[in-house]
């Protein structure tokens, strides 16, 4: 539900604001269309579940009915080999006109080459070979904590059945806060170790979403499990699930906020 509301808000309000800004810059501007970049790097088979297909079906229906011809092109890059099977399902939700606008590239280099044909370099994020600010720089500029010298963010998704680990590296003159988001009511025990020394920097902390707050329309529960971890260093965030190995896995999004000091 939250994603569907975000889709409606973006089309009705965010795009409207951009239209007005563009018209102010260029009075001859008459038409707005978007080029969507969908980067599938790190996509796993487990993430393509029935819920994802339901969201795609609903949003494509809204776009076709209420916002036709807004999409100029959608470029999918870093598509894994198994995505071809998923694409056969997704195509059924899309009208032929929309399907014709979607291009899929398995290799980053070929995808970036196509993006440079569609988008001016000063508008294309640096992540994809352009000269515009990177996606991370844009996120940081919109972050409410930007006044606290947040210079970058590191995000890692843990799909835990029994245990899992992620690493975050910071350099001299940086410090790190680690925040975990989840809807898991079983939870997991998190600890933080300094990579090379294997020294426990943060004692084991249980991260568990309270009962009654794990619904799809509830904001994910979050907890800061470590703050002001100083660089240089490679920090290893370790998680141990509370439930047994035979249970279904739970998701934990680990966010590292890096500040300059």
TrEMBL record:
Pfam families: CRAL_TRIO. Coiled coil: none annotated. It comes from Trieres chinensis. PROSITE patterns: CRAL_TRIO. It comes from the Eukaryota. Residues 1-136 form the CRAL-TRIO domain. This is CRAL-TRIO domain-containing protein.
């Amino acid at each position: 539900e939250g994603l569907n509301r975000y889709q409606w808000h973006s089309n009705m309000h965010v795009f409207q604001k951009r239209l007005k800004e563009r018209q102010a810059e260029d009075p001859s501007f008459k038409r707005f269309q978007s080029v969507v970049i969908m980067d599938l790097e790190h996509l796993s088979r487990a993430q393509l579940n029935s819920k994802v297909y339901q969201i795609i079906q609903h949003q494509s229906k809204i776009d076709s009915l209420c916002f036709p011809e807004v999409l100029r092109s959608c470029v999918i890059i870093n598509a894994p080999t198994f995505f071809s099977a998923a694409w056969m399902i997704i195509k059924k939700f899309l009208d032929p006109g929309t399907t014709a606008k979607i291009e899929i590239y398995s290799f980053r280099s070929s995808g970036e080459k196509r993006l440079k044909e569609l988008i001016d370099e000063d508008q294309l994020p640096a992540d994809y070979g352009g000269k515009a600010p990177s996606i991370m720089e844009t996120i940081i500029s919109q972050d409410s904590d930007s006044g606290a010298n947040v210079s970058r963010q590191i995000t890692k998704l843990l799909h835990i059945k029994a245990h899992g680990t992620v690493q975050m590296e910071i350099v001299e003159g940086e410090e790190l806060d680690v925040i975990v988001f989840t809807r898991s009511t079983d939870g997991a025990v998190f600890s933080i170790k300094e990579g090379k020394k294997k020294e426990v920097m943060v004692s084991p902390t249980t991260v568990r979403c309270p009962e009654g707050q794990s619904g799809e329309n509830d904001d994910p529960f979050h907890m800061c499990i470590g703050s002001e971890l100083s660089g240089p260093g490679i920090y290893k965030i370790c998680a141990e699930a509370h439930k047994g190995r035979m249970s279904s896995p739970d998701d934990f999004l680990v966010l590292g906020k890096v500040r300059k000091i």
